[in-house]
Amino acid sequence: MSNHLKEINDFLSRIEKKNPNEPEFLQAVKEVAETIIPFIADKPKYIDSNILESMCEPERVFMFRIPWLDDNGRIQINRGFRVQMNSAIGPYKGGLRFHPSVNLSILKFLAFEQVFKNSLTTLPMGGGKGGADFEPKGKSDNEVMRFCQSFMTELSKYIGQFTDVPAGDIGVGGREIGYMFGQYKRIRGEFTGVLTGKGRQYGGSLIRPEATGYGCVYFSEEVLKHRGDSLEGKVCAVSGSGNVAQFAIEKLIQKEAKVVTVSDSGGCIFDKDGIDKEKLEFIKELKNVKRVRIREYAETFTGAEYHEGVTPWNIACDLAYPCATQNELPLKDAETLINNGCCGIFEGANMPATADAIELFKSKKLMFSPGKASNAGGVATSGLEMSQNALRLSWTAKEVEEKLHGIMKEIHQNCIEHADADNNYVDYVKGANIAGFVKVADAMLAQGAV
Ligand code: NDP
After folding, report:
1. Which secondary structure element, helix H or strand E, spans residue 7, and what is its range?
2. Cα 287 from Cα 40, distance rounded (Å)
3. Confidence class of residue 2 from pLDDT cuts 50, 70 and 90?
4. Residue identifier of the C-alpha nearest atom 7 of ligand 1
5. Which residue of 132, 213, 280, 337 shows the fewest CB atoms closer than 10 Å?
6. Pair 275, 325 in one domain
7. Is the dihedral of CA 394, 198, 254, 373 positive or negative?
8. Tens digits of per-residue pLDDT, 269-292?
9. What does the alpha-carbon distance between residue 326 and residue 165 come to, in Å, rounded to a whole number?
């Protein structure tokens, strides 16, 4: 990086000037620029066309009002967004997030990451992201339905099976996708694969719910295999207890690893005996049906401890899987993980480790995989859902999972090829960024300045 420090800093100050007050977006751009600028330095086709700067500018952004009626008969107002970042290699594709923290900076960072991630999946999908500053926690099903209907009434103007195909993300699971799909169908009068993550009964793919978590564990298995190691017997710390965390834990159990933590925004569970299948079913019921706090786990299983207001990173483990949210693993926690013997960190969430934490992992030559590689299984399987919708048929769970597994192996191989890897150390950040970049950049060049 040092050889190109000036170019990187000049580039980042231009981007910062255009996008003030967008720290998450700037963080995501910086991470990519640090590997892409040295890579393109001797490639005039990318420099002359200003391709990286072009990739930092969304093709368009929509921001809109979402009025909805609460159970007390009052009108509530939220703000909705859709960021259509890049359509060079396919229709925009990326999730919708419902969380009070949602703003333009967070959605632009997610949409930017999505462009590289979708490119890595080997499928023809551009990048986008959207959502609203809506808090589903504590709302009744009817309130969530009315909110989703109002949100989709506006969003439906900008999306479609050949233009932009949203999916779920934080706060948007099967329930919310169902309500939004119903409203889109009603408004447009057509039954199409405009959303992914749909229920099985109306066009959803088997294994889509499992895909991000399973894919992350498959990716980590490849990383370990590359070092001559395996998941068996490894003590794992997982954060979060939502979609990604639940299925990462499920696959880790299948691989005979021992998962000792799970968390939510309230605190962390430490279960020294390990989370088994039965305990995982309890977590799924807690979070997907009852929609209550993870604290209740420790009230049910003796031996498990609940630590209020903390993350899992002070628990000793061999491998860490941050599966909750961005910047949940800062430098201080990265140091603690390393001091406690952790040797591999695999991002299930998007950008969970801060930039200085990643620098530390890299300087210690630990196994570290960025979310755009290790959590790409979710969107890849969304791509498989789109294929099934287009073909008007359904693949079996076995078929979908085999394809998912194959894609994660291919992403791993692509990272290795673009990372100047040797047998001892692979810079997966570099590998993922360059592999993702080349395909999108070449497609943009082929299509001219559009
Ligand atoms: P869910 O809403 O299902 O679960 C999110 C989990 O993270 C919950 O346990 C939640 O706790 C916790 N969490 C959310 N915000 C915070 C916070 N600020 N601090 C601490 N904990 C928090 O979301 P997903 O599992 O779908 O998504 C998790 C991550 O994975 C996100 O970064 C998402 O972008 C990424 N991702 C998801 C994909 C998918 O297919 N779903 C695909 C690729 C990436 P609580 O319930 O208390 O809020």
Report:
1. helix 5-18
2. 45
3. low
4. 324
5. 280
6. yes
7. positive
8. 999 999 999 999 999 999 999 999
9. 23
Same domain as 353, residue 217: yes
Residue closest by Cα to atom 15 of ligand 1:
325
Domain count, the chain: 3
pLDDT above 90 for 14: yes
Q: Are residues 222 and 282 in the same domain?
A: yes
**What's the mean per-residue pLDDT of the chain?**
97
Q: Are residues 78 and 8 located together in one domain of the fold?
A: no
Burial of 6 (0-12, 13-18, 19+ CB in 10 A): exposed
Residues 230 and 133 in one domain: no
- Work out the average pLDDT over 217-239: 97
Q: Which of 27, 169, 208, 323 should be mutated for ligand 1, with most atoms under 8 A from CB?
A: 169
Residue 111, amino acid: A
pLDDT at 420: 75
Number of the ligand 1 atom closest to the C-alpha atom of 264: 11
Got the DSSP string for 387-449? HHHHHT----HHHHHHHHHHHHHHHHHHHHHHTT--SS---HHHHHHHHHHHHHHHHHHHT--
Q: To test ligand 1's pocket by mutation, which of 134, 175, 244, 323 has the most ligand atoms within 8 angstroms of CB?
A: 244
The pLDDT, as a whole number, for residue 124 is 97
Instruction: Report pTM.
Output: 0.96
Q: Which atom of ligand 1 is nearest to the CA of 208?
A: 40
Q: Can you tell me which atom of ligand 1 is nearest the CA of 117?
A: 43
Query: Are 46 and 86 within one domain?
Result: no
Ligand 1 pocket, CB under 6 A: 168-171, 173, 212, 240-245, 264-266, 323-325, 328, 348-350, 375, 378
- pLDDT in the model for residue 423: 62
Does residue 231 form part of some domain? yes
CA of 377 to the centre of ligand 1 (A): 15
Q: Are residues 220 and 333 in the same domain?
A: yes
> Percent of the chain having pLDDT more than 70?
99
Residue 404 lies in a domain: no
* Same domain for 47 and 16: yes
What's the CATH number where 162 sits?
3.40.50.10860
Domain-embedded: residue 261: yes
Q: Check: CB of residue 346 under 8 Å from CB of residue 220.
A: yes
Q: Is residue 336 part of a domain?
A: yes
Mean pLDDT of 219-240: 97
Residue 371 is predicted with a pLDDT of 98
By three-state DSSP, how is residue 247 classified?
A: helix
Domain boundary among 55, 81, 99: 55
pLDDT tens, position by position, 303-313: 999 999 999 99
Domain that holds residue 342: 211-365
What are the residue numbers of the active site? Answer: 129
